[in-house]
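BACKBONE GEOMETRY TOKENS
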Amino acid sequence: MDFRHLGRSGMQISEITYGNWLTHGSQVENDVATQCVRAALDNGITSFDTADAYANGKAEEVLGAALKGERRESLEIFTKVYWPTGPEPKGKNDTGLSRKHMMESINGSLRRLQTDYVDLYQAHRYDSFTPLEETMQAFADIVHSGKAHYVGVSEWTAEQIRAAHALAVDLGISLVSNQPQYSMLWRVIEAEVVPTCEELGIGQIVWSPIAQGVLTGKYKPGQPLPAGSRATDEKGGADMISRFLNDETLARVQALEPIAADLGLSMAQLAVAWVLQNPNVSSAIIGASRPEQVAENVKAAGLTIPADVMTRIDEALGDVVVRDPQIVTRSTPARRVV
């Protein structure tokens, strides 16, 4: 496993981060989830990403139990705050980035993760209904109390990141990361978010590097969706993958197979290695429903894809790649969820 600095910070994280969105506490049984975490550790992964909203807290609980007994100082644990959490019915303050919700959420996350601190505490979305000054002050108090080392954001626009970074500097805390969707097919951060983050010393921890499984090549144009795949899962994920499930995109993805074969890689390994070619990417998040998936995907770490092959990939995918930077703004919720 290779390691990279998270943004311009001194903390190093594994090039591959193990994430448990849609799996732990939901799609896979707890014993299998624990096996996946053990496989991640066995393959050199030290960075683990979760969120309080994943399976309404159960994902954090499963990850905390799976990591119990590991040397805490040898791990980098990330979690997030924004989306509604807690028992039904949800209260008006059970969502967002208000001081009240953030302070209560960090305590809940630490309890579920069975740790005294997280290495990175991330705003899961931008909150248009809470003053950014309030949010960043809460982040600062969480850091200064020792409950988090660094702070980050997820799916924020370049303008939002710049404003938050300025406040972080004034408050004496380190805003070091952004967690966006990024893959060969989804490049909306490249035009605005990445240049801003490079300027400010903020690294990307990217999710869905294999486009919810589309870049594995298992979805074929003109053929039924594979049984048991993400695209048929009613527990979550099917909506997000649907944007890629058109015959033109799937046919273009099939053209990547000989490119991967020439490098001696699976298509999933090629996809993960591709995002790691971007120097602003600190780590790529992979999930797994089976331990062997972890072992296969970590082989993408430390690989260099030659420039001519990067060009071949662009030519193979053509205009099915989504690049519009304005799409990032749509990630900011337009209304309160609760």
